[in-house]
Amino acid sequence: MKYYAVTGRIPGDDEDTVLCVGQHPDKGSAIDSFTAELLELGCIDEEHTENLRQEYGTSVFINSIVSSDSRIEDAS
Questions:
Q1: In the predicted model, what is the mean pLDDT of the chain?
Q2: Which of 34, 46, 63, 76 has the highest count of CB atoms within 10 angstroms of its CB?
Q3: Distance CA 40, CA 15 (A)
Q4: How many CB atoms lie within 10 A of CB 59?
């Protein structure tokens, strides 16, 4: 298990979001966690997510994935 930070954005949005998503067994799981956290934060909702999947083939665009053996923390 590694720690992950994911950078991505909602299709149609101009700004990226970076989230430290904790420990995961692989990057796919980290991406799923990133998407779930965007839902939890209210950045997107289930209906919006489905519409994005239909239009773009995905609900989020991933720009980068950083993994580390040690914990990744938000600098704020």
A1: 91
A2: 34
A3: 18
A4: 21
